[in-house]
Amino acid sequence: MYKPKYLTRLKQIPQLSEEEREHLNEVTERFAFRSNEYYNSLINWDDPEDPIRRIVIPEMQELEEWGELDASCESHYKKVPGLEHKYDHIALLLVNDVCGAYCRFCFRKRLFMNGNDETTRDVSPGIEYIRNHPKINNVLLTGGDPLLLSTKKLENVIRQLREIKHVRIIRIGSKLPVFNPWRIINDPELAEMLGKYSYSDHKIYVMNHFNHPRELTRESRKAVSMLQEAGVITVNQTPLIAGVNDDANVLAELFNELSYSGIAPYYVFICRPTLGNYSYAVPVEEAYEIFEQARMHCSGLAKRARMAMSHFTGKIEIVGLTDSHIFMRYHRAANPEQKGRFMIYERNPEAYWFDDYRNQVDDTCWNDDLRMATSF
Q1: Most exposed among 68, 227, 238, 314, judged by the fewest C-beta atoms under 10 Å?
Q2: Residue 44 falls inside a structural domain
Q3: Number of continuous H segments (helices) and E segments (strands) in the chain
Q4: Structural domain contains residue 317
Q5: What is the DSSP string of 167-224?
Q6: In this structure, is the dihedral angle defined by the CA atoms of residues 65, 210, 314 and 329, taken in order, positive or negative?
Q7: Above 70 in pLDDT, residue 360?
Q8: Looking at the domain assignment, is residue 186 inside a domain?
Q9: Which residue range forms the structural domain that includes residue 32?
Q10: Number of domains in the chain
Q11: DSSP string covering 258-314, please?
């Protein structure tokens, strides 16, 4: 039974020169490194710009001062240890502080730093909060990667959620089918357990994180198929990342390959302005144009994704461009009064985030929006 070895030190990667490791140690002292033998085998080590390499191998540009650790102020929506409640119908349970590998552009890299207490191994306070808030019909298990928990521990969480009648959907955010499909392949009881709690009217969704079509290997497709055959719904979300999928042909191939495997493209996110992520970010308007060009080469099933920013105040969808203006709307809003709000701004090709358009609006209005979001 194959089990890929996890790698947490650069000296475990023989493809890197001693000089490279010495330089990159400065990066890993600040932002944690983790990968594994299986995922590293997908890298073309002869290509320094290889997109798979770019996803997990540190780069010196990460030391550029740009952004902040909690770019979407997720900690503001923490209600009890390990639980965030930002949108009225959805709650997040952060059940793990480890992933199969660490994406260099991760927006939650703060969770993998010493002293962070946003995740919890004791879900009891979060379960009780959900039980006492009947509007919550969706719960997202995230972290870290929930599928790295033992099947028994994960079942304990899911079983308790299934005892709450108003929780209709359980989502599991995971990149394990990508980073280590053997976690699923080697443990058929995992898919069986998820299927047991995925009822006809109370489904379990696995929110996959395929960023590049080369990640859709024979092994990853097999892992996803095992989940699907057990009765789990599979979708995909990915940020648009410079040097990884910021090419219309690559993104179109990703959308199409996902659809061939029954994985619905769900979201394409603008890279959050997280500390260390400048070299991975793509300007908003450039990203949208790539996104729309990619969709032109897809069937209807493959072009279902929305492009959005996970902003402090809500999930803001980019819905169109003209020569002079950009159009957005609140797909989800932290403040219920902002739901569906449509916004028009003059184009700004240098904008990387919603905040970069704020100079076009009255600061009083902007501050009112933030105040209403934080009052929820």
Answers
A1: 68
A2: yes
A3: 12, 14
A4: no
A5: --EEEEEE-HHHH-THHHHT-HHHHHHHHHT--SSS-EEEEE---SGGG--HHHHHHH
A6: positive
A7: no
A8: no
A9: 6-63
A10: 1
A11: HHHTT-EEEEEEEPP-BTT-GGG---HHHHHHHHHHHHTTS-TTTT--EEEEEETTE
